[in-house]
Specification:
Keywords: Cell membrane, Membrane, Transmembrane, Transmembrane helix. Residues 80-147 form the YetF C-terminal domain. This is DUF421 domain-containing protein. Belongs to the UPF0702 family. By secondary structure, the protein is α+β, with helices and mostly antiparallel strands. The protein has two domains: 2-87, no CATH class; 91-145, bsu07140 like domains (CRO Repressor, 2-Layer Sandwich), CATH 3.30.240. It is 60% helix and 12% strand. It has six helices and four strands, in the order ααααββααββ. The chain has helices spanning 2-21, 31-49, 55-78, 80-87, 101-107, 111-122; strands at residues 91-95, 98-99, 130-135, 141-145. It has a four-stranded antiparallel β-sheet. A hairpin with a 2-residue loop joins β1 and β2 (98-99). 13% of the residues are buried.
């Protein structure tokens, strides 16, 4: 029972930390972030298993973590409030062709990243050709071009 409780607590803690860290944290993994992720995974593993390194304990933890993932996906499917809380909503950093510096700073996105997404997805060259740009739930940037662009 202790392993299940440890698994649930670690899952909730990591979920909260990555939710607080923001959408862009896991969207683009640099070598530094990959090393950090590996260290986090090792630390998490040690916190969950304590001194019990048995196969039974490993299976129990895997079932607990997968079960939590399934339960949260079902909750998100049936509750829009839970979905918004767990996943968040897309955040506009360009509104009607205007750069929203405050929101962009909060999302840790710069204009060059938005323009890269605009060029890649729609061949746009200038910010005034972008009607809306949003940081999506997964940290990617989506672009809605202006009509006629």
């Amino acid at each position: 029972m202790e392993s299940i409780l440890r698994g649930v607590v670690v899952y909730a803690f990591l979920f909260l930390i990555f939710r607080i860290a923001g959408k862009r944290t896991l969207a683009q993994t640099s070598p530094f972030e990959l090393v950090l992720l590996l260290i986090i995974s090792e630390t998490t593993q040690q916190a969950m298993v304590d001194s019990d390194h048995s196969v039974t304990n490993a299976f129990l933890l895997i079932m607990t973590l997968v079960g939590l993932s399934i339960a949260l996906s079902v909750l998100k499917h049936y509750s829009s409030t839970a979905s918004r809380w767990l996943e968040g909503l897309p955040v506009l950093v360009v509104r009607d062709g205007r750069w929203d510096k405050r929101t962009a700073d909060k999302m840790r996105v710069d204009e060059a990243e938005v323009m890269t997404a605009a060029r890649t997805s729609h061949g746009l060259e200038r910010l005034d050709q972008v009607k809306h740009a949003a940081v999506e739930n997964d940290g990617t940037i989506s672009i809605v071009p202006r009509d006629g662009s």
